[in-house]
Amino acid sequence: MNFELDHVHIRCQDLEASISYYQKMFNGEVIARLEVRGMPLVRVQVGGAILALSPKRAEMEVEPLSGNLRWGAYELGFLVEDLEQAYRELEAKGAEFIAGPMSPRPGVQIAFLKAPDGVQIEIVHREPGL
Question: What is the CATH number of domain 1-57?
Answer without folding.
Answer: 3.10.180.10
